[in-house]
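Practice problem 4.
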């Protein structure tokens, strides 16, 4: 069975990949499509993508790669996606906490990492949507694509194949949590810059300090001082 599979259409690559996993997990398996009809994002968000212009991609990573540590897996997946997109665009790509990717102030990618058990093997299912060729984002003013942000017209199949190869190669020598967290914070969007945040329907200026070892965002707020936030407890307005 091939380790990279193309689907002409599917509801969600994170669901479809479960049908392609081998009996024994000997390599990373990935699936991708250019037409995903029911994509999911983090914390129940929906991921909408234009047909034949963008990529929905999922990889199944045995949890043993990360000693069954969810935070370690999240760090690695987020950084691998960031590093790959930065490499192919030759541009700085930032991470908007917790795992959106920003290129020149626009969101170009979002991801969802789920834990699944298939044939008694535990996997992290790493799903990512990448805006590649889409030009119109009138309904999503904070979004963009690799094309709108760089004017590069990339081949979708080649991009998917290269990303699968990139993940496969990088999985052979996975860095420590400490190393990955340091890299994550070095690429954190708006870190150490004044930005506007909203908490409990109240807006105030603040400065992101870092993401801590619990995955919480540490922000120095103008009126409330240094605070720690879990997902959905704070929103950056940019």
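Answer key:
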């Amino acid at each position: 069975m091939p380790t990279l599979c193309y689907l002409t259409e599917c509801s969600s690559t994170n669901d479809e990949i479960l049908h392609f996993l081998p009996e024994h997990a000997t390599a990373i398996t990935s699936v991708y499509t250019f037409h995903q009809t029911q994509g999911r994002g983090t914390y129940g968000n929906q991921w909408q993508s234009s047909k034949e212009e963008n990529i929905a991609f999922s990889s199944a990573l045995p949890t043993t790669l990360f000693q069954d540590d969810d935070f370690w897996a999240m760090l690695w997946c987020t950084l691998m996606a960031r590093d790959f997109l930065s490499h192919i665009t030759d541009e700085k790509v930032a991470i908007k906490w917790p795992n959106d990717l920003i290129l020149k102030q626009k969101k170009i990618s979002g991801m969802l990492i789920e834990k699944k058990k298939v044939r008694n093997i535990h996997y992290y299912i790493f799903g990512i949507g990448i805006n590649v060729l889409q030009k119109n984002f009138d309904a999503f003013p904070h979004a963009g694509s690799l094309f709108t942000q760089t004017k590069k017209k990339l081949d979708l199949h080649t991009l998917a194949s290269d990303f699968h190869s990139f993940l496969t190669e990088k999985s052979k020598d996975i860095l420590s949590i400490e190393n990955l967290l340091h890299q994550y914070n070095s690429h954190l969007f708006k870190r150490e810059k004044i930005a506007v945040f909203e908490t409990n329907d109240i807006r105030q200026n603040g400065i992101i300090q870092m993401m801590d070892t619990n995955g919480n965002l540490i922000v120095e707020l103008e009126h409330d001082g240094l605070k720690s936030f879990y997902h959905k407890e704070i929103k950056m307005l940019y």
